[in-house]
Design goal:
The complex is a heterodimer. By secondary structure, chain A is mainly α. In chain A, about 75% of the residues lie in helices and about 0% in strands. Chain B contains ten helices and no strands. The chains are: A mainly alpha, B mainly alpha.
Chain lengths: ~325, ~270
């Protein structure tokens, strides 16, 4: 087991490094000279351009730039934002909690409700409830998140004024404690709904399919014949077995959830990493783009790693021994 | 019920494709003609007009083409690559298999959407580029699935027989194994079309993508500024996207039910 863990950690680190290199290459093959973001379009002397290039290390050969970049990443120096003139890492760190809050809340909500609905559906396959929930799930899969966001914004925020149009908290009000938390929740509701929808559909269908498979198995008949109530059977025997594919899915789709935040944060003006990435890409603010990409990749890889570990905890049949 | 849904999906999907092809001929108005802002019913314009007075219904019809081309095109590219890689990986095994699966794992872990956005935003949004990029990030599922199928089919008697008859490797791969490994790939293909349509409209929504094209996503991009005054600009293109993706998802589910009888209800 320990060997497996060590191997996985090394693999993860290698992948992260690979991603960093890939991002670096990506950004440097882009057309256009980042110099002009720094200098602007005005008239400048040749000397000034040369000086700026040297100052930002843009005159060195690419490979050397890459090496310097890797070295600085590992020592914690992630460059300065070209737009804000602040360290890139500070910008990302400021916005990360907002995205994590949104993302994890949506994930948690979607998983809980999804499992519940999935279990309910699986108990009566083919019934009206099952068909309705399947249909709703399909719609949830197919709906474009940005469109749903705009619609919710229009109906609930603009027309009905039930929720704020955007932002994370009400400007100007200096709330603390519970009042602040409630205010944030109020702002978070709509964006969280949009983020939840897709994953909810996935979880419901997955749980349903999984449960239907499992409820047919012999050990369930055994449990039932022991006289256990149906809910006990589901909770203690069926559900833990059904959870495995759901956990896999969390790992696989963690990346997509991050991707979804670009739209949602932009539309709802939520101050998170997604919006930062988008704004930085349009502004060609390379250090921030790199920093956000690295952080996002690390997050996704870590989530995958944790999910893999959870496997062993949940399913004692899986053992990462020498055989693997 | 599921069968009915699949049929619905096929009907809608087919109509979308037909609309994509004949759209320009059945549109009531020229989608580029300017005018004044208008409401929906009553009206000459079923879906109203946008801020520049262009008929929304005609624009939605015209918009089917780029959305379908990019969606189906990139999905097909991804499926093609995926099946090929899965086939080769599963059949030859060994180091090649290891290498290809590593590459698959890495591509899966990359922040695909961010990278796609970066690429399209830096290199411009031509149709070919978008199809290529979307395809390049979507082949992993197909590859894995095909590989798994190939691994099990490899052991079958008829493959052994083919080898005994002296069939070449590529002959075996493409004539014996591939036809039997296709079913899951077909399911994945339909679902992929849906996802690619969503991805493309997402890109257009952000303003990337070809500005000359009138894809549904770019209509939503334009509609953003007018949510309050002209909500119909936003509602109908989005509805079109939803219907298209839904249709292909139904079709995929239908294939799934047909080809995977295990999961059918008792």
């Amino acid at each position: 087991m320990k060997k497996y863990l060590a191997k996985r950690i090394i693999e993860s680190i290698l992948v992260i490094i690979l991603v960093i290199v890939f991002d670096f290459v990506l950004i440097h093959i882009a057309p256009g000279d980042p110099i002009y973001n720094l200098i602007g379009q005005g008239h400048v002397t040749e000397d000034y351009v040369v000086m700026i290039r040297a100052k930002y290390g843009l005159d060195k050969p690419i490979v050397e730039q890459l090496y310097l970049y890797l070295r600085s990443i590992l020592t914690g120096d992630w460059g300065y934002s070209l737009r804000f003139h602040e360290p890139a890492i500070i910008l990302v760190a400021q916005r990360l909690p907002a995205t994590l809050l949104l993302g994890f809340s949506a994930l948690a909500l979607a998983t809980c409700i999804g499992i519940l609905l999935g279990v309910l559906s699986s108990r009566k396959p083919g019934s009206i409830i099952d068909h309705i929930s399947s249909l709703v799930s399909m719609i949830g899969f197919s709906i474009p998140s940005f469109w749903l966001a705009l619609i919710l914004l229009f109906v609930f925020a603009y027309t009905l004024s039930l929720f704020p149009m955007g932002g994370m908290s009400t400007l100007g009000l200096d709330l603390t404690g519970i009042a602040y938390a409630l205010d944030v929740l109020h702002h978070m509701f709509l964006p969280m709904m949009v983020l939840t929808v897709w994953y909810l559909a996935l979880t419901t269908q997955l749980t349903r399919a999984s449960m239907i498979e499992i409820l047919r198995k012999d050990f369930i008949i055994t449990a039932r014949s022991k006289g256990l109530s149906e809910w006990k059977v589901i909770r203690k025997h069926a559900l833990p077995n059904a959870l495995l594919p759901i956990i896999t899915m969390i790992g696989i789709y963690a990346g997509e959830i991050f991707a979804g935040t670009i739209f949602i944060e932009t539309i709802f003006s939520w101050p998170g990493v997604g919006r930062l990435v988008w704004e930085s890409i349009t502004a060609r603010d390379y250090p921030v783009v790199m920093a956000s990409l690295v952080v996002t990749s690390v997050a996704v890889i870590s989530i995958n790693f944790i999910m893999d570990l959870l496997y062993v905890v949940i399913d004692p049949r899986i053992r990462y021994t020498r055989g693997d | 019920m599921r069968n009915r849904l699949t049929v619905v999906g096929l009907v809608i999907g087919a109509s979308m494709i037909i609309v994509a092809i004949i759209g320009p001929w059945i549109a009531p108005y020229d989608p580029w003609a300017l005018g004044q802002e208008a409401l929906l019913p009553p009206g000459d314009h079923i879906f109203g007009t946008d801020n520049l007075g262009r008929d929304v219904f005609s624009r939605v019809l015209y918009g089917a083409r780029p959305s379908m081309i990019i969606g189906i095109g990139s999905a097909m590219l991804a499926v093609f690559m995926g099946i090929l890689i899965g086939l080769v990986s599963g059949y030859f095994g060994g180091k090649l298999d290891d290498l290809l699966m590593r590459i698959t794992d890495i591509v899966l872990v990359l922040p695909a959407f961010f990278i796609i956005i970066i690429l399209v935003s830096f290199f411009g949004g031509s149709i070919q580029l978008i199809i290529m990029i979307l395809g390049l990030f979507s082949w992993c599922g197909c590859a894995r699935m095909t590989r798994v199928m190939v691994l099990s089919i490899k052991q079958s008697t008829y493959v052994e027989a083919a080898r005994a008859m002296g069939m070449s490797n590529s002959g075996i791969m493409f004539k014996e194994i591939l036809p039997n490994a296709l079913p899951p790939a077909i399911v994945e293909a339909s679902l992929l079309i849906g996802r690619c349509i969503l991805l493309e409209s997402g890109l257009s929504f952000l303003g990337l993508g070809d500005p000359n094209l009138m894809s549904w996503g770019s209509m939503l991009f334009n509609a953003q500024a007018y949510i309050r005054s002209a909500w119909w600009m936003m509602v109908f293109p989005g509805l079109a996207i939803l219907l298209a993706v839904l249709a292909f998802n139904f079709i995929g589910e239908g294939f799934n039910d047909a080809l995977n009888p295990r999961l059918k209800e008792q």
